[in-house]
């Protein structure tokens, strides 16, 4: 099978769109209340450590992708054992993203449309992303990322006259615990979700390339969602934000500059769709590659359609209502996803470091003799 | 009944479109894996169309925690 190739720049842009994805309209970290900005900054610091850990995992085998490195470090059997829970997690992750999109269209876009229509529409786009591959998705992101960045920044600027800094005060009234909770929410959704890139990024020849992708991708993506979250709390305040499913959608409907620029929520919906497409595409590529590796398949693209259909069906079964979905994302996802986004990668990282040190020692002994 | 037929027809068309080239290339393993995933998706679709109530991991966790917190 031909190995996919993308440049580090394309990797960064894909990560930016991935982070922006579902978190553009659904702001996380609300558990921190008025101190949400503090939670975001703490989340960035923690996530950066994990992002560098993901990069370190990929840089262990220059010229090798994650699967080849994992197999060379742990062997054929253990690499598959490690990846089975990741496949389950990625399936659920994809389900959440598709559900998120379908629910958004249902509640804010076209309420009378059957939910299966947006589900299938986005699912089909994600399948196409798998068929065309990460290379095309990377090239696509080079065009569309600028639209997303420009909209996020410009909408933030247009909202400045509606902002009230009193919404951020008093500082740390509820103590440190809510900030920690909020930070965990932001870490798990969306910052450390970039762990999915472990399975998607191709083998870079340059050892530093994964560091560039993960650090810059995370940082730029963070800045964008931080602008959105800060804009929401400054305009709406925490109480109103907690009542809304999509606070950013409401915030952008307030924008009014003269008679021409007003009600930007339709642009927000478009930007949201673009970013969700990248997110769903990346996760489906990751999922197909992981399943393909576990089952020892030479080709993984043919799995895209049945796996996407499985995920769409599961989305119908998983959540009884929109409230249940929101509850899962806000209260349970941070703990559930930590196992797959933080603990398993940490385990892989420790194994890699241990094996690399062992090999170095062996080489050292060999040269001494 | 119409919905069931529609779902079945959709899955059959999808299967035919994908499997025929695989049969020509004699990729037995790929065909087997593809059929397993597609059958699983088709069964879930049919159960949903028939209105069969299924419990999920997420629903079970949410129920468990809400019953624990309301009980305490």
Explain what this protein looks like in three dimensions.
The complex is a heterodimer of chains A (369) and B (72). Helix content of chain A is 73%, strand content 1%. With 369 residues, chain A is mainly α. Chain A has one domain (8-321, 332-362): Amino acid/polyamine transporter I. Chain A has a two-stranded antiparallel ribbon. In chain A, a hairpin with a 3-residue loop joins strand 1 and strand 2. In chain A, helix 2 (36-59) crosses helix 7, helix 5 packs across helix 11 and helix 7 (177-188) packs across helix 13. Chain A starts with 7 loop residues before the first helix and ends with a helix. The mean pLDDT of chain A is 90. With 72 residues, chain B is mainly α. Chain B has one domain (2-71). In chain B, 83% of the residues lie in helices and 0% in strands. Chain B is built from 3 helices and no strands. Chain B is elongated and about 60 Å long. Chain A binds chain B through residues 92, 295-297, 299, 302-303, 305-307, 309-310, 313-314, 316-320, 324, 327-328, 331-332, 336, and chain B through 14, 18, 22, 29-30, 33-34, 37-38, 40-42, 44-45, 48, 54, 56-59, 61-62, 65.
Strands, helices and their partners?
The complex is a heterodimer of chains A (about 375) and B (about 70).
Chain A: H1 8-23, H2 36-59, H3 66-74, H4 76-109, H5 116-132, H6 134-158, H7 177-188, H8 209-236, H9 238-243, H10 247-254, E1 256-257, E2 261-262, H11 265-294, H12 304-318, H13 322-368
Antiparallel strand pairs in A: 1-2
Chain B: H1 2-24, H2 28-49, H3 57-71
Helix pairs in contact in B: 1-2
